[in-house]
Design a protein that fits this description.
Layout: E1 10-17, E2 20-25, E3 28-33, H1 36-52, E4 57-63, E5 66-72
Parallel strand pairs: 1-4
Antiparallel strand pairs: 1-2, 2-3, 4-5
Length: about 80
């Protein structure tokens, strides 16, 4: 029997990009969203779904160069909130 493979982390990063609120996942931008709040809600909801599917997932808010954890799955580990 082969060892279990680990799933890649799913980091949903909410950011203001080119004057619009977007979500960055693996260097792909989704959006734009009308408000920061809508983008945050979408990122958290999607991260929760990824976490429920077994992915180490997190939703982060990027302000400048700082990351604020919005939600982190139990299996995400300590690196999830680092961006």
């Amino acid at each position: 029997m082969s060892p279990p493979t680990s799933l890649p982390p799913a980091r949903y990063i909410v950011m203001n990009h080119d004057g619009e609120w977007k979500i960055n996942l693996d260097n792909t931008y989704y959006g734009p969203f009308k408000t920061k709040e809508i983008a945050v809600d979408m990122a958290v909801d999607t991260a929760k779904k990824a976490g429920a599917a077994g992915y180490p997932a997190s939703a982060l808010l990027m302000t400048g160069t700082a990351f604020e954890p919005l939600w982190v799955s139990e299996n995400a580990g300590s690196d999830a909130a680092k961006g």
